[in-house]
Each structure stands twice: as C-alpha cells, then as structure tokens.
C-alpha cells in the first residue's frame, strides 16, 4: 500500500507516462514507440499544468482583489482541489480508493458491463473524497469502503454514457472522461438542452466559438476574447491600468497555449489509443472499449475556456447574492473549467447555453459546498492538514458537485440502505446500457 501511495505521489505528469509505457508494451507497440508515446504524454501534462498554473497565478490574485473590492465577508474558504486531493488521499480510506476502484473496473470489464478502461488513476482521489466524507459522517469504515466502490461504478457508468458525445464533438476516438468532478454536469446539461430546444427564438441562437468569430470578426477570435475577458475581470477586481493589461495578456495566452498543450498530449495518446482499439477488436470482435482519461484534455477547447472565464465573476456574484451561502470561492476559481467542460459537447459549443446551465449548477453547488464544509474540515483535521487561519474550509471541486451531496446525504440519512441503493441503480444502468448497445450492434 505504501508503494502504491508513493507511486500516486509522483503526480500525473510522471505516473501517467509510466502507466502508458507499460500499457503500450502490453499492446505490443514496441519499446521505442511505447517510450516516445509515454514521454510525450508526460510532456503534454507538464505543458497543460504550466498553462493552468499561469491561469491560477493570474486569476487567483484577481479573484482575491474582487473579494476585497466588493467587500465580501464569507466565513468558509474554498481551499482548491490540490488541497482537497491531498486531504482525500491523506485519510485512512484514501489509499484504499485506488485498489478498490481498479478492482471494480476490472470486475465490470470482465463481465462485460462497462466499456470504460479508466487509466486516470490519479483522479481516483474523487472516490476517496466521498468515501472519507461518508466515513466522517457515519464513523463506519466499511460503509466508507462501499461508498468508494459504488462511486467508482457511477463514474464508469458516466464514462460509458458520455463517450459518444465526447467523440462526436471533441473528436477523440475511443476515449471518454470518467472524471468524477466533470461528468456530473453532463447529466444536468442533457435535460437542459432538451428544454432549450423547445424555447422559441432562443433555440435558434448559435453561440459557439466558430459562429461568434464569423459574426464579430477579430473580437470573436478566442485569443482576443480571452484578452477581453481578462480586461473585464481586471476592471471588476479594481486593478490599475498596468495590472489589468497584464491580466488581459495572461488570459489571452491561456486561450492560445492551452489547445497547443492538449494537442501535444494527444500526440502521445493517439498511438496508444489506436493500438488498444486494434488489439481489442482482434481479441473481442464484439466489444468496443473506451480509454478513460482526465477531462483536462477538454480544457483547451475555446468554448470551455470562454464559458469558464465568464463564470469567474458570475460565481463570485452568486456567492454574495445567494442567501445562506457561506463559502468564499477562491482556490478553485481557476479550475472552474473542470466543472463545466462536459456540458460543452452536449450544447455543441454553445457558450450561452453553457453559461446559463453553469450558473444554475454553481448556484446549487455553493449550497452543497456550504453543507459539507464542517465535514470536510473534519476530514482535513484527520489527515493532519494545516488549515492555517481558516477554521472551516470547503472546496468547489468536489464540494460543489451534486454527486457529493447524493453520497454524503445518503450516508447520513439512509446509511447502508442509501449507498446500497445508489449501487443497485448504477449496476442497473450499466446493465441496461450493455443490453441496449448490444441490441443496437446486432441491428
């Protein structure tokens, strides 16, 4: 277990190249090609993280300035996903999330009830988060373990469901995103899209990046749009001219550089994905599997970045306006793309639909983050995490995600019955999809 935790502590940029190198060798791609693919994946992740760090370093101070500029006084601080992941893996249940999730994935693949091979091991921390949360509520260690297993099943169900939209919009062949922070928003976007399609006039509005660029020319370009959004955020933060212009250039740089870093990442993933697809077709001619990856691969899309930058001031405004909210969005403001990225393929890149749905989503999420804050703080204390001067802490990732409320609420109010019921529903969903897809393939 200590060796496994040491491996996870290497971080995604080191851990994933090793995983993909081994995976490529198993697929018989050859040592040279396997090594090149693995190291390219690592370089791609380093590049993505560098751009995300640029976004965090530029938006973080701007968000803090907005907080002071508008006189926000909220008692619970959003510490961000890096702290949330460290706390989750630092609890008693944390390290168990990895073998449990791998075991669930292997079992469901063996019996043919999922098509998702979830190699995104680093993000198993999301399952550790809900498991530790239920343990903090119930003080039942075994129920915490069950929660991790059920959450892993739910994530695989999400991966199977959203794979078609991911492939048709983003163009990623045989790939899906069983990301526990990103996938839940997909389930809100689906019914909302059906509702938007029934609203006269509104259903005719085209607001994807390509349409915006055609209509507005230079000002519709994603890089220029990033600069304009940076100017807006700088003005709302009360920045001077010099700092505002610097923020504008930094946000424009993120819009330009992120797609290039994701493209580099895909350069390493594509040979492995193709080899896996060919291998599976030969061994299982009637099965079609997806490689489950980090949703960071979607962050570089102009629609995702544009909508997420717009959501920064909206999220802060919601935090102030909503009665009963006590969470101050801060650490995860630069990570908002992870919450909304899988809405975008449902809306075919429509930024207006994405922002409207994201506003509803984050509004409800702030109440969830407020509710779980005392429990999250207890988790942090149990993991010996230094909360510094913040007596109560929370997080938007995963604190503002509706699945967190479902698991924690079921654990608190229904106990074993509640978590078990979620597991039964997830299993039934996987069984239905399996039979439906098989029937579709036969036809």
TrEMBL record:
GO terms for molecular function: galactitol transmembrane transporter activity. InterPro entries: EIIC-GAT, PTS_EIIC_2, PTS_sugar-sp_permease. The chain crosses the membrane at residues 6-27, 34-52, 86-109, 143-163, 218-241, 247-269, 289-322, 328-347, 354-376, 413-433. It is found in: Cell membrane. Keywords: Cell membrane, Membrane, Phosphotransferase system, Sugar transport, Transmembrane, Transmembrane helix, Transport. GO terms for biological process: phosphoenolpyruvate-dependent sugar phosphotransferase system. Its main location: membrane. One of its GO terms (cellular component) is plasma membrane. Residues 4-443 form the PTS EIIC type-2 domain. It is a multi-pass membrane protein. It holds the Pfam family EIIC-GAT. This is PTS galactitol transporter subunit IIC. It comes from Lentibacillus amyloliquefaciens. The lineage of its organism: Bacteria, Bacillati, Bacillota, Bacilli, Bacillales.
């Amino acid at each position: 277990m200590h060796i496994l935790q040491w491996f996870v502590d290497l971080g995604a940029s080191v851990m994933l190249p090793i995983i993909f190198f081994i995976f490529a060798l198993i697929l018989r791609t050859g040592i040279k090609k396997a090594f090149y693919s693995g190291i390219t994946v690592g370089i791609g992740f380093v590049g993505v993280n560098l751009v995300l760090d640029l976004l965090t370093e530029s938006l973080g101070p701007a968000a803090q300035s907005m907080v002071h500029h508008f006189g926000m006084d909220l008692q619970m601080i959003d510490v961000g996903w890096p702290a949330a992941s460290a706390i989750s893996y630092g609890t008693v249940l944390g390290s168990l999330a990895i073998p449990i999730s791998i075991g669930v994935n292997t079992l469901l693949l063996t019996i043919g009830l999922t098509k998702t091979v979830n190699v995104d091991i680093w993000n198993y921390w999301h399952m550790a988060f809900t498991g530790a949360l239920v343990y903090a509520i119930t003080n039942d260690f075994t129920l915490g373990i069950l929660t991790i297993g059920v959450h892993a099943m739910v994530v695989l169900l999400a991966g199977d469901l959203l794979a078609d939209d991911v492939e048709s919009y983003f163009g990623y062949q045989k790939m899906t995103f069983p990301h526990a922070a990103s996938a839940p928003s997909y389930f809100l976007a689906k019914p909302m899209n059906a509702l938007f399609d029934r609203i006269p006039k509104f259903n005719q509005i085209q607001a994807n990046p390509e349409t915006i660029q055609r209509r507005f020319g230079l000002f519709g370009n994603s890089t220029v749009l990033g600069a304009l959004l940076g100017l807006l955020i700088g003005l709302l933060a009360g920045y001077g001219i010099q700092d505002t212009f610097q923020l504008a250039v930094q946000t424009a740089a993120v819009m330009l550089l992120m797609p290039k870093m994701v493209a580099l990442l895909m350069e390493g993933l594509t040979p492995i994905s193709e080899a896996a697809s060919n291998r599976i077709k030969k061994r299982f001619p009637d099965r079609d599997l997806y490689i489950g990856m980090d949703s960071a691969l979607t962050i570089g899309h102009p629609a995702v970045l544009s909508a997420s930058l717009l959501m920064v001031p909206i999220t802060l405004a919601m935090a102030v306006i909503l009665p009963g909210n006590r969470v101050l969005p801060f650490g995860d403001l630069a990570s908002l793309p992870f919450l909304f990225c899988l809405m975008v393929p449902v809306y075919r890149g429509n930024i207006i639909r994405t922002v409207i749905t994201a506003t509803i989503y984050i509004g409800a999420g702030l109440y969830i983050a407020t509710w779980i804050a005392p429990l999250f703080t207890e988790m942090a204390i149990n993991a010996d995490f230094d909360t510094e001067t913040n007596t109560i802490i929370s997080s938007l990732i995963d604190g503002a995600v509706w699945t967190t409320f479902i698991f924690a609420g079921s654990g608190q109010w229904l106990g074993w019955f509640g978590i078990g019921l979620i597991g039964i529903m997830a299993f039934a969903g996987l069984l239905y999809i399996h039979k439906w897809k098989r029937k579709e393939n036969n036809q």
